[in-house]
Amino acid sequence: MRVRKWYDPVARQWLAAQFANAGEIHLIVDGTKADFAHQLLMVSMAYHKRAVPIAWMWVKHIREHGTGSKQLALLSYVRTLIPGGAIVILVRDAEFGSAKVLKQLDCWHWFYVPRQKTGMGVGLKGQSDWKPFGSFAQKAGRTAAPVDPRHTTQVCSGCGRIVEKDPHTRVHDCPHCGLNISRDLNAAINILTHGLASLDPVVIES
Ligand SMILES: [Zn+2]
């Protein structure tokens, strides 16, 4: 909490700068498993294909219900840092999709780009298989951008080159550009970049 106090103005400045530049703010929610009982829940701002930390919180990932409340608390805090009138686009992992959280995002009129995983009832084989997901999102009154998830973990979000890793490698460590971030965060940034590109007319500046 003390860290949050001094970091607060820093985070506000980042967010205000992005709002001034782009008119909207691009956030990423990322949960990094620290050990068997704890998770670092992080909200970052996507900036020049990097992730700038805005706020974070340790959670015990024992029950989904508990983490849903924590996510909401963290996002509510982040919302207080965001300049009025800013459009907020949030990339989140599939596991951050508790109904409570999504409902709140809707109330705030935040857009989100969900990161899809296999086994979520959405086919991943070809472009046409994305249709059910798109229509689902439309029904819910949200903007969703289907993104092919197959390459998002291997491609470096910093330089665009392929960095091969097996499913157990949790860190994205790029030998080409030196980008070192969590595997999930790297994938989330790729998805955000692709998702925004397909949303038109908004593209992250690079
Ligand atoms: Zn790289």
How is this structure best described in words?
36% of the residues lie in helices and 23% in strands. It has five helices and seven strands; from the N terminus they run H-E-E-E-H-E-H-E-H-E-E-H. The chain has helices spanning 2-22, 64-81, 99-108, 131-139, 183-199, and strands at residues 24-33, 38-47, 50-60, 87-92, 111-114, 171-173, 180-182. It has a five-stranded mixed beta sheet, with helices on both faces. Strands 6-7 form a two-stranded antiparallel sheet. The termini are far apart.
Note the main attributes of this structure.
206 residues; alpha/beta; five-stranded mixed beta sheet; two-stranded antiparallel sheet; 36% helix; globular; disordered C terminus; binds zinc ion
Tell me how many strands there are: 7
Distance from first to last alpha carbon: 33 Å
- Strand coverage percent: 15-25%
Distinct helical segment count: 5
Sheet having the most strands: 5 strands, mixed
Please state the average pLDDT score: 72
Instruction: Work out the radius of gyration.
Output: 16 Å
Describe the structure concisely.
This protein has 206 residues and is an alpha/beta fold. Helix content is 36%, strand content 23%. It has one domain.
Question: Could you outline the blueprint of secondary structure elements for this entry?
Answer:
Blueprint (H helix, E strand, L loop, with lengths): L1 H21 L1 E10 L4 E10 L2 E11 L3 H18 L5 E6 L6 H10 L2 E4 L16 H9 L31 E3 L6 E3 H17 L7
Parallel strand pairs: 1-4, 4-5
Antiparallel strand pairs: 1-2, 2-3, 6-7
